[in-house]
Amino acid sequence: ERDLTDNVDWPVQCTVGPGLEGAIACETKIGYVNGAQGMLYYRGYNIFDLCAYSSFEETTYLLLHGRLPSQKELDSFKDVLRKNMFIPKTQRLLMTFPIEDMGPMASLRLGTNLMRQKQTYRDSDEQYYSTDSIASDEDSIAMETKPRGSEESRFEFMKRVMKRPASAAKNLVSAEEIESCYKLIAGVPSIAATIGRVREGHIPLEPLPDLSLAGNYLYMLTGRKPTRLEERVMDINLILHADHGMNASTFASLVVASTLSDIYFAIGSGIAALSGPLHGGANVEVVKMLETIGGPKKVASWYKKARGEGKKITGFGHRVYKSYDPRARILGPMAGLLAEENEQLRGLFDTATELEKQVIASLGSEKGIYPNVDFYSGIVYRSMGIPTDLYTTIFAVSRVAGWTSRVLEYLAHNRIFRPRAFYTGTLEEPYIPIDQR
Ligand code: ACO
């Protein structure tokens, strides 16, 4: 392990500010963000090396298990993931919901609930139905539609939700929990792709045996086998977004897991937190903003007006990085390369680089405002023809690796999260009956 004591933000200064700025939530060996130097490490490995030499599957193994796998371990991990991408039952269930109207992130969150083993849900006839969606067994299980006694089903449901044994509090992470993590890491890409397909009126697809997780996500979304370049570009994207310190969605997952709720709930909470425009939702907003600006020549007047109105510029700034986000260092040039081939994309990319110049010139050294991970990723996704409002689901496809790794790490020494609030209200107010107010 590398000695971190020569890094500028070491030893850790713990001064807590609004938004828990500076607070230390837990110890971790999973990832390290050096905000001053703009460096990112997973398990001690530099993100630039992982993007150059690794794959999303290998990086996920590294995050989960703490070391790089042997070839044999990697091959069998890839097999497990591919098998768990096969979720026809969850796909069928998902199609019964109005996902066209729900929005992609809400649908994705719903999908993680539908993935639960032994699901119980209620249909429009107010009857309870039970289904079994152990992903690898899905091919052999026909959807069960036998109505059940509602009280019994509700009880079973509660038992399942509350099923974590007391032993979990004694630092045990069960094989079942690790299995659930594998299912989520493989299932979320399939759900995300299904959402994209179903919205366009297509039938969901099954994964192909000869594609990587990144390749299968693209194939299941578009119905077309990706080129090698597209598969690699998506793979690098997934590596880049896989983990990032104690960000809001990771923290949300940990808070839920710390109550000894289950991993599906924890990951669903991560998805919910990621969806906001201050977090992962920013990648959608950036592309909309670049389109609104309407070209590099219009950047100066747009930026002047936006700053005059006191607006924050989406895709810039970060709680931790006060220097250039290393992920944007990879995504920016990647977007540039892809834009070379595509006239329409070039307009978007040129607008982005012009905006970057102006923001850095005015806020870079003064406030440490630089592009973050979300500034260029949308242009990369646009090059593959992915609809704009699906971009945040791609972030989740990747980040589920980090969420699950950190949840497992935290559960091994679990203590419920329970911070305090500083009370600034009044006390002992006289209660006035309603007719006298
Ligand atoms: N544009 C202009 N100024 C900014 C920006 C921005 N995007 N971000 C921060 N600032 C300024 C603030 O106005 C503030 O200035 P002040 O000291 O004069 O008041 C200063 O920088 C500190 O900003 P905070 O809002 O306190 O920073 P915080 O750490 O709370 O927020 C956040 C971080 C949410 C990322 C913020 O920078 C932001 O809103 N950025 C735009 C949304 C975005 O791109 N989100 C994606 C982040 S990456 C991710 O989550 C995957």
Automatic annotation (TrEMBL):
<comment type="pathway">
    <text>Carbohydrate metabolism; tricarboxylic acid cycle; isocitrate from oxaloacetate: step 1/2.</text>
</comment>
<dbReference type="GO" id="GO:0036440">
    <property type="term" value="F:citrate synthase activity"/>
</dbReference>
<dbReference type="InterPro" id="IPR016143">
    <property type="entry name" value="Citrate_synth-like_sm_a-sub"/>
</dbReference>
<dbReference type="GO" id="GO:0006099">
    <property type="term" value="P:tricarboxylic acid cycle"/>
</dbReference>
<dbReference type="InterPro" id="IPR024176">
    <property type="entry name" value="Citrate_synthase_bac-typ"/>
</dbReference>
<protein>
    <recommendedName>
        <fullName>Citrate synthase</fullName>
    </recommendedName>
</protein>
<dbReference type="InterPro" id="IPR016142">
    <property type="entry name" value="Citrate_synth-like_lrg_a-sub"/>
</dbReference>
<comment type="similarity">
    <text>Belongs to the citrate synthase family.</text>
</comment>
<feature type="active site">
    <location>
        <position position="374"/>
    </location>
</feature>
<keyword id="KW-0808">Transferase</keyword>
<dbReference type="InterPro" id="IPR036969">
    <property type="entry name" value="Citrate_synthase_sf"/>
</dbReference>
<dbReference type="Pfam" id="PF00285">
    <property type="entry name" value="Citrate_synt"/>
</dbReference>
<dbReference type="InterPro" id="IPR019810">
    <property type="entry name" value="Citrate_synthase_AS"/>
</dbReference>
<dbReference type="GO" id="GO:0005975">
    <property type="term" value="P:carbohydrate metabolic process"/>
</dbReference>
<feature type="active site">
    <location>
        <position position="318"/>
    </location>
</feature>
<dbReference type="InterPro" id="IPR002020">
    <property type="entry name" value="Citrate_synthase"/>
</dbReference>
